[in-house]
Amino acid sequence: RMAIDYGLFERYIGFFDGFDPLIADPGAEVDLLAPGGRFDLIKEYIAFLRERFQAVVTSVHHPGITMPLLEANDIPCDGYITPVNKPGVFMLPTPEAARVAIKASSRPVIAIKPMAGGRLCNQEAFDHVFGEMGVASCMFGMGTLDEVKETVTNAKRALGCA
Fold first, then answer.
1. What pLDDT is recorded for position 17?
2. I need a surface site. Which of 3, 30, 64, 141 has the fewest CB within 10 A?
3. Rg (CA), the chain
């Protein structure tokens, strides 16, 4: 009996009126709906977003569970945003299950948490994310201008651009 209130949702995304956002992310709801078998709601939700945005990617916080379910049920998203890092921090339910799902994905993967919350140096993090895992893109956080310079330099080096 679960349903999405699209009227309310339309009001919330009205915040972006006048902008030209490229990507929509349905968010963590997909991690809750997929294990419950509610692929009908996920497809409906993504269709709603696709009418309003150029691309729809979905955050996946349990890639070892959710990504195989989305792949098996041919959910029409354009990619996944998920934690990817060498120590397996936030890669659920286990780092190995997450790695298998990420590598098996038929869609691009955008890595988050590549430095595992500061547990890795930048070069090691990017070598793993881009080299060993082969993700399409990566998002990372920085707090100072020096961190920005160091992180971008190491990312470019890992990509062979430096």
1. 85
2. 3
3. 17
